[in-house]
């Protein structure tokens, strides 16, 4: 895909730096290419639609100026899952209204609409044109879905806008109900016209469109259900469509869960294999070593200059025990040592962070967590490959945009929200994910009769008859999809933004002293006050300088940035603000509530 995109005429590529909606919508994206010479062969249609991938499909890390990317990209979500050593304004309540930019970017839409309006001007077979129009409509649906999740109501444009069409350029925002209805028309067209064959994991097909439809309908269905303040209709219909799309994808048999070398490694291998064609990925971003096209997830997890990311304590606590029981039912679970808390857990924990016995891929020796690379102590390993790819821009393993596991989770959640979930539904979805790592099956009856108070305290708006099993589905979603760029939108649609205000926590330490984290007989960390002790160790952390504990010298959980108060405005922060320049240019635009 990347090489194809590089073949596209530079005239097709549009700058992403312009500020005004009108500037984007009225400019000619193909000033050097007319419909008469751009759409006369399938190859030309293919090359043009290839240009949509990089500007609409998310990349490895997020871009707050580009609304078509999930909030923090495919690997670096910064919600309540991953801790960094600095906090963005979205987590501190210090967001301001941007003058320009801020995600109000329409360049990708201008090019998509140009293609849809002009792709039939050539002499290509109509059936082939339908396929490529399906591709364009897929990307228009993806674009508008991202705009709605960010801003709510936005103007709908389905055609190229003339430079002198002030009525269109200066129109007000259309309702999100109208936008989502239009998005679903686009995605249904894509489903009906895209290829059903899997030519490449880098190209959209019928099954990719079903995956996107399931994601869109689940987001919007739950958003409308839980955000009653907006009085939005149709949540039941949307949840039904989410379940139906996921079921069609699952039952197609086109994709299968990756099982690799077995339960102890399959989940890790899924994200580290260099193969572009593993059986689970529906759409992925691929990177080409031979073309020097890389990204930096290894460097992100081992370099202190990338924010020292680490898993958050609450998420670590959310992983079940290997026998299906709950760690959080154990008295004093928050005071357990790192070694103790990581024993006999859901195998996905040890395939997501460094735990005792962890070895880098291709390495012969074990590696304990490095506090030079993680602020919480729970050092990330998901997506991390061997040491040859540790340099900046060193990774070439593909990143999933859609994978089968998400369809399983979407299906189960939608059915649970509808009140139609059965044990059989769990067995064809959630329990297949658990079976991959040899975890016990989720019992609907048991979950509903033994509701987890740890989860119930977190997710305050769940009150249906399926409360227990719905909470367990949310647990499964958080564990399975961590670092895949979906958590922010999950919290927004569930109306659980308050979770972003919790103090970031990490490992527990009793106080100053020497610690053998992995029980291999070697001291890994020495926490000290005053003069550094003469104790051989791999890492020395001065209390109050290099590490903060809840109770200082009396120990406790690591606290990250304790002096910074986290904040989330429930009446405002579920939507982003429109830039002031846009409202000045277009008097018909209104600002989002409370901004």
UniProtKB/TrEMBL annotation:
Localisation: Cell outer membrane
Gene3D superfamilies (UniProt xref): 1.25.40.390
Cellular-component GO terms for this entry: cell outer membrane
KW Membrane (keyword) present: yes
UniProt domain RagB/SusD: residue ranges: 306-595
SUPFAM superfamilies, A to Z: TPR-like
InterPro entries listed in its UniProt record: SusD_RagB_dom, TPR-like_helical_dom_sf
Keywords recorded for this protein, A-Z: Cell outer membrane, Membrane, Signal
Keyword Signal attributed: yes
Family: Belongs to the SusD family.
Record-given protein name: Starch-binding associating with outer membrane
Organism: Chitinophaga arvensicola
